[in-house]
Amino acid sequence: MSARKIVLTSGKGGVGKTTTTVNLGAALAKRGHDVILVDADIGLRNLDLVLGLEKRIVFDVVDVVEGRCQLRQALIKDKRFDSLSILPAAQTRDKDAVTQAQMAKVVEDLAEMADYVLIDCPAGIEGGFRNAVAGASEAIVVTTPEVSAIRDADRVIGKLQERSMPVRLIVNRIRPEMVRSGDMLSVEDVCEILSAELLGIVPDDEEVIDTTNRGEPIVLNDQHRLKSIYEKIARRLDGEIVPFSTLDNQGFLGRLFGALKAG
Amino acid sequence: MHVLRQDDAGGNGSQPHEQAPVATPAKLGRAIVITSGKGGVGKTTTTANLGTALARRGATVALVDADVGLRNLDILLGLESRVKYHVLDVLEETVELEEALITDKNSPTLRLLAAAQTREKDEVDTEKMRALVQRLRETFDYVLIDCPAGIETGFRNAVVGADEAIVVCTPEVSAVRDVDRVVGLLGNRFRPQLVINRVRPQLVKKGKMLSVEDVNGILRLPLLGVIADEPEVIVSTNKGEPIALRTDTKTAAAYHAIAARIAGEDVPAPTVEIKESFMGKLGSLFGGRRS
Amino acid sequence: MIEFFNKLFGREASSSTAKERLRLVLMSDHLSLAPDMVEAMKRDLVDVISKYVQVDRTKIEVSFEQQDKALAMLANIPIVGVNRDAGGPRGGSGNGAPAASSAPTANPSAQASAPENPAPPQPAVPTPRRRRRKKANPAAAT
């Protein structure tokens, strides 16, 4: 079985790539897929931390590439799921510890073991970005509805298109009340400006920081209001047509300013 | 809080000036890099607003956007339509430094040197970057360098000309971890000071967010400022008008306090207020106030 | 509701400002990222103008500037010669073919040669408004 190899990238840092990788990966795993998450942020690893697996790291991607361990030995299985594992980054090396070709090979090998390989890309468009993208065949660009994030996303989308990579967009941290008062760009604005296909809309939620602090993926918490959002994104990724719902249930105005077409 | 001595030779004092002042040794401006490791914590916002606040106090300030390929300092200041030349143009001597410096719309003593949008970070010559920052220090009281996210080439080039560092952190585990790494890489030379950004006092109270003490308990740096999360910052970015221009927001006040501390004033220690007074008193029982 | 009142009293929502600024800055970013396209545009422009006047191809400058709500292309094309014949020949060739009218019309034979490199993926932005500025060069050698 050869997995879908998807890089999650953004250009701008701090928009939620790692949080999205973890929660989307967990949602896919809950749907029964075999999922492997790869942390491509060598030197500034965080995927392990956000998933709460930081204490279990023995080997990392650099150990694999330098032959100190087998690929399987470096994978850490998340015991809360049937089939979710991560390949951590090295913390004390830097990004030229791994070449693009090596990354591509690692991702190829992982793709033989899973249904989905999600690669968490570092911020920027330098070597770390190039390495992260080297192994992927699709991209998800994560952005927030803010001017700098959108500008950087645009640049990254350009670079991905140069590689003929299909790109889909997740708009993260949208605040419907600020969109309504005209203080924030809407999801439609963002999609229009970036000319990208929308994969998901994730509202801003102050509880998310708590989940990353505790290393608990959102889909494990039935009470969490974002749980269904990530589940929907997972379904769309699987090819289902899932309409984008209004972001809140505030009636007419909400529907007017928040409603979007499906797909 | 901190009065930092001006060292005429700059930096570690071991490099000769390219253009040594002839008569009395001119007082060199301070070159401060604003960095974090983690992206999206507010480096660029801090650079723009600290620069604005310092300029409002009458200082001459040069802002350098070191994020080659992903420039954003210009757009935060509302100067994106005025950018004609950038850092690489100056380093490669395509254009004079003076021509490349853009005067801010709102603060006449604030000038911006934009990043190149379509080049790569490894095209920057490190030594020339250092020399450029030295040149700027000769004419400006402050040179603030906006560092890109990460710890790769961009980071190294941003840091090379600087003398001091401000590290920006948000109260989140990943950010703290990254700042810790960056502080390790910076070493003692830069005497880094900490700004904690995007604090949400209500969440801290509920135990759902790290407190200032939690963060600095790990990082153990001199605390330069604490800034609460405010939606007005998004509005100011939309408009391209740094929030420090306003007088009515807590964020602006926080940046002005940071500027005052940088300038050596004795300003009360940074805190974040907890809004409702009753809950505030309760909060202070749990050590919610930074002392 | 707030947005309604803002519009009523003429205060522009900051999101509209943001959208407009982004639109312009991305146009500008895309142009600077497509030097091949800009070169091709320059060549085509100069080829068309050369049908009517002689130009100094070595001194042509093209730049983009934000003006009000649009991006303007400014072209500085030194004209080194204008034939006495109405309409003028193609620049430098002197074959004396007169043009019937002074207004430029679509002329298939004036198609410039295709750019050598395939154009980069077209950015999804509106075409910049073009303004041409021609400066007569008094020092032109004849």
Task: Outline the structure in words.
The complex is a heterotrimer of chains A (263), B (291) and C (142). Chain A is 39% helix and 16% strand. Chain A has 263 residues and is of the alpha/beta class. Chain A has an 8-stranded mixed beta sheet with strand order 3-4-2-5-1-6-7-8, sandwiched between helices. In chain A, helix 1 packs across helix 11 and helix 5 runs parallel beside helix 6 (127-134). The two termini of chain A are 27 Å apart. Chain B is α/β, with parallel strands linked by helices. Helices cover 36% and strands 14% of the residues of chain B. Chain B has helices at 43-56, 73-76, 87-91, 97-100, 126-139, 153-159, 173-186, 201-205, 212-219, 232-239, 250-262, 277-285; strands at residues 30-35, 61-65, 102-103, 110-113, 142-146, 164-169, 193-199, 223-228. Chain B is globular, with a radius of gyration of 19 Å. The relative contact order of chain B is 0.17. Chain C is elongated. Residues 91-119 and 134-142 of chain C have low confidence and may be disordered. In chain C, the strands form 2 sheets. Chain C has a 3-stranded mixed beta sheet. Chain C is built from 3 helices and 5 strands. With 142 residues, chain C is an alpha+beta fold. Chain C has helices spanning 2-8, 14-32, 35-50, and strands spanning 54-55, 61-67, 70-76, 79-81, 129-133. The interface between A and C is medium-sized, with 20 and 22 residues.
Topology:
The complex is a heterotrimer of chains A (263), B (291) and C (142).
Chain A: E1 4-9, H1 17-30, E2 35-39, H2 47-51, H3 61-65, H4 71-74, E3 76-77, E4 84-87, H5 100-111, E5 116-120, H6 127-134, E6 138-143, H7 147-162, E7 167-174, H8 176-180, H9 187-194, E8 197-203, H10 208-214, H11 227-237, H12 251-258
Parallel strand pairs in A: 1-5, 1-6, 2-4, 2-5, 6-7, 7-8
Antiparallel strand pairs in A: 3-4
Chain B: E1 30-35, H1 43-56, E2 61-65, H2 73-76, H3 87-91, H4 97-100, E3 102-103, E4 110-113, H5 126-139, E5 142-146, H6 153-159, E6 164-169, H7 173-186, E7 193-199, H8 201-205, H9 212-219, E8 223-228, H10 232-239, H11 250-262, H12 277-285
Parallel strand pairs in B: 1-5, 1-6, 2-4, 2-5, 6-7, 7-8
Antiparallel strand pairs in B: 3-4
Chain C: H1 2-8, H2 14-32, H3 35-50, E1 54-55, E2 61-67, E3 70-76, E4 79-81, E5 129-133
Parallel strand pairs in C: 3-5
Antiparallel strand pairs in C: 1-4, 2-3
